[in-house]
Amino acid sequence: MGTVAAGAKIPCRVCRTLDIGDFSILHQLTWFNMAIHSNAEYAKGTWFKERSLAGPIIFAVADGLVHHADTVAEFLAQDGYEIHAYIGVDQLKITSPVLFGDTLKADAEVVDLRPTKNPERFLLIYKNSTSNQRGQQVIEYQTTLLVAKKTTTGS
């Protein structure tokens, strides 16, 4: 059996510390500019006591950590698979806020690799649980990718 099987860990090789510049640019690019994310005075009155990163941006950063430098692609290539499409995300839960200076680390593992009706294509489902530097989980979700066995070309 190959390395791409339920329970296999997907190596996540990088962490990311998010500073005030990251917050500003990410919120401006995505238009997530609600007061809790963009107004420091407003945020002081919340239970966070400071601006927090918007949930959809937490997802983008967490998923970027899994896919950084083609981590998932390299993991799949060990067994001769390649990614064809990003199909969807399920069971997404933001479990803790992300604040200035937090360092995020992803922990991903294969949930399932199953065939589709097309015998050349498969669905890879992986779970990502990303935590901050204090070991607090900030997000968890499952992603489904459409993958296929790499085709070999004759010379």
How would you describe this structure to a colleague?
The chain has five helices and six strands, in the order ββαααααββββ. The protein starts with 8 loop residues before the first strand and ends in a 6-residue tail after the last strand. Strands 1, 2, 3, 4, 5 and 6 form a six-stranded antiparallel β-sheet that branches. The protein has helices at 20-30, 35-38, 40-44, 55-67, 71-77, and strands at residues 9-10, 15-17, 81-94, 103-115, 121-131, 137-149. The protein has one domain (9-149): Thiol Ester Dehydrase, Chain A (Roll). It has 155 residues and is an alpha+beta fold. Strand 4 (103-115) and strand 5 (121-131) form a beta hairpin.
Summarize the structure.
This protein is α+β, with helices and mostly antiparallel strands and 155 residues long. The protein is 26% helix and 36% strand.
Which characteristics define this entry?
6-stranded antiparallel beta sheet; alpha+beta; 36% strand; 155 residues
Topology diagram in text:
Elements: E1 9-10, E2 15-17, H1 20-30, H2 35-38, H3 40-44, H4 55-67, H5 71-77, E3 81-94, E4 103-115, E5 121-131, E6 137-149
Antiparallel strand pairs: 1-4, 2-4, 3-6, 4-5, 5-6
Low-confidence runs of at least 5 consecutive residues: none
The CATH C-level name is Alpha Beta
Give the termini distance in whole angstroms: 29 Å
Helical stretch tally: 5
Share of helix, binned: 25-40%
Return the average pLDDT rounded to an integer. 91
Question: Main sheet, how many strands, which sense, barrel?
Answer: 6 strands, antiparallel
Instruction: Provide the structure class.
Output: alpha+beta
As a whole number of angstroms, the C-alpha radius of gyration is 18 Å
Count the E strands: 6
CATH architecture: Roll
